[in-house]
Amino acid sequence: MVNMITKQIYYEDTYKKELDCEVISAEVGIDLTEVVLDQTIFYPEGGGQPSDQGKLEEAKVVSVRLIDGEIVHQVKGDLAEGQKVRALIDWERRYKFMKIHSAGHLLHDHLVGKYESLIPLKGNHGKKSFIEYEGSIEGSKEDIEKEVNDLLNRDLIIVTKVASFDELKKLCKFVPENLPKNKPLRMIQIGDFAPMPDGGVHVRSTKEIGKILIYSIDSDHGKVNVRYGVS
Known about the structure:
This protein is an alpha+beta fold. The protein contains four helices and 15 strands. It has a six-stranded antiparallel β-barrel. A four-stranded antiparallel sheet has the order 9-10-15-14.
């Protein structure tokens, strides 16, 4: 197991917008420089949630990726190893995707509670957010939208924390077998719903989400796709 150099401040404080960092390495490419920091508030793309964007001093952070076990900031601009930099995330973008991601988990909790035969297949919590299942959903999108927003308005607490693969297997209903078993993982729990594996960043409570919108529920060949958003 490779030990990550970068300290993941975005997990310690998901609402932190600025941070002083040091450049550990800066590899200049054709279009972008790949930068590793000693610590970061930039969330790397993963789990269906887009990466953060923002700035390191005047260099523009275009995307952030997890590459070979390390967080790599892909930037436009000049940075050098050993340089002290001020990180500033695009908070409006970050907060939007935090709300979308949390909304997707609340929607999932509601759906698998109401339709117990549903088996989650995949999801995306970016600009075109959706959740896909094996199975079927009989209710209308209007009814499901009302039901999930009734839950949202109860202002349920959202908790994320570190867990091992064995802990996830004990606590969660659905655990992908391809999750790494030799490193700490993370999980999310909303209110009294069952926890589930998740490495994203989230809001603190469901009321922060605003309102969940159900755009469509489409079924095809034993699968159902639920497209959603927030407002």
